[in-house]
């Protein structure tokens, strides 16, 4: 069985993070091995606290797994600290891990910051150049590029700027005239992946599903464009099947 390494935070309501990655990987026929970067106390309404896993223990998790298992792909989600970024970069380079998909998680949907302020530039400078693809949503793309996205042209400009830092880029979730559009850019061509907006507010974890699915399809040998299209399709299905849990937004169902 093919294997995905998920490097991410734990979501105590099991809608996003490591838990969503495991569910997505399994649904696509993959086994998921996990490296926990942070433990969160959260429900459908809030992230009440975050316990970051020390960087040396993140490294220990990766080293121990990699002594025994060579993952077919890697997905990185919530990292939280600059020290964690450094150790993950070191292990990617040391073991020549690829393909690596990074979902640059900065803020929870309920508003809590999931990346330390001093880690943002480190993420761009140290981690972006050593991964294959990044998958920011619209808000994350705005923060990473320092511009406000008001049009599809703004999305394209962000994609060009982020590609300039190294990885291929998929900016997800641009809304226009009843459609959700993901913009994929490999440095040569913009690809627009379009689908009618799914009317379901229970969409917690959709970004995690997308990035994990993209990692899985790359591991299966699909090219960047095809993998992004398939990940978009899987994520739409997961949102359609999202269900109510708690008083806020419920989780998607990959």
What is the highest CATH level, the class?
Answer: Alpha Beta
Main pleated-sheet profile: 9 strands, mixed
Q: Rg from C-alpha positions?
A: 17 Å
Strand residues, percent:
15-25%
Give the strand order of the largest sheet, numbering strands 1, 2, ... along the chain. Answer: 3-2-1-4-5-6-7-8-9
Low-confidence stretches: none
CATH superfamily: Ribokinase
Give the fraction of residues assigned to helices. 25-40%
Structural class: alpha/beta
Please trace the helix and strand order, writing H or E for each element: EHEEHEHEHEHHEEEHH
Q: How many domains comprise the coordinates?
A: 1
Summarize the structure in words.
The two termini are 19 Å apart. Strands 3-2-1-4-5-6-7-8-9 form a nine-stranded mixed beta sheet. Helix content is 39%, strand content 23%. It has helices at 17-27, 55-68, 82-95, 120-127, 138-145, 152-163, 206-219, 224-240; strands at residues 3-10, 31-42, 47-52, 73-76, 100-102, 133-134, 168-176, 179-185, 190-196. Helix 3 packs parallel to helix 4 (120-127), helix 5 packs across helix 6 and helix 7 (206-219) runs antiparallel to helix 8 (224-240). It has a single domain, classed as Ribokinase (UDP-N-acetylmuramoyl-L-alanine:D-glutamate ligase), CATH 3.40.1190.20. The protein contains eight helices and nine strands. It is α/β, with parallel strands linked by helices and 254 residues long.
